[in-house]
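Running this now, will post back.
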Amino acid sequence: MFPHTLESFAHHRRGVAVAGRKPRTPQRSRAFVPSAVAALVVLAGAACALVHPPGAKAIHDHGGFVWDSAATAHFRLYFERGSSATAHIDALKRSSEQARARVLAVLGERDYAEQVTVFVVQSRARMKALIGKEVNGQAIPSRNVLLYVFSDSIDASGAHELFHVVAKTLWGNTDDWINEGMAVYADDRWQQRPLHAVASYLSEQGKLIPLPALLERFDHYPELVTYPEAGSFVKFLHETYGVDALKQIWDGGAAAIPGVTGKGIEVLERDWHNRIRRQGKPNER
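Update: finished.
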């Protein structure tokens, strides 16, 4: 049995990156949220975008936060004084560099020259106080900034948000399904379980979204399904056709898939389902 219900993932779901995707028409908008930084956040539909993304200095100088800092070869990390990150900063420094290596490997890129600024907060409530959104993680690619929650109950220090920062800069805009799918694949797990195994479970439960619908209307379905499903599908593409094929699909969207793979979507979907059925259950890996 899958050890948690699908709904139990909701507590740990990741935030949506604010850039790296092709523009879309908002379904609805809401009022601006208060505070100097958060006032720059406008909510549109299920996703969020920063109209004027704050830079590292604006976030650092936000009232109500006292930051300590540490540095690695490629990162400047700010973390709340006395928080869980304080006791684990050496591990977070190592994980940042490991995440960078993983992101570059997924993208097939040799280097990312920019230093990335990271803000680590203690809770989702603190994240909301800082940027006006109660999420686990947030990427601001145009500023080379990412933010995430790190505590005893939530650890969002993986590669997901960093992927959005690096991919947006090196590869440009793309569609939501491959942007989020590759970000999930950068961690290669969903809620600490192998991607293909999670997709296999979703398939057995009849939860998988038909592939054409996933690619065309990614934002119309629950993220608790779309994120691991897209991650598993992108992993399948990477394993089967390589990073050059993924780059072509990133640039051309779903319409490019048949030309890149030599297969129609329905045939490709069957091949992918055959692959994930061989992966076993999440608690067997």
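Strands lie at 41-44, 47-50, 67-71, 75-80, 116-121, 137-140, 145-149, 189-190, 193-194. More later if anyone needs it.
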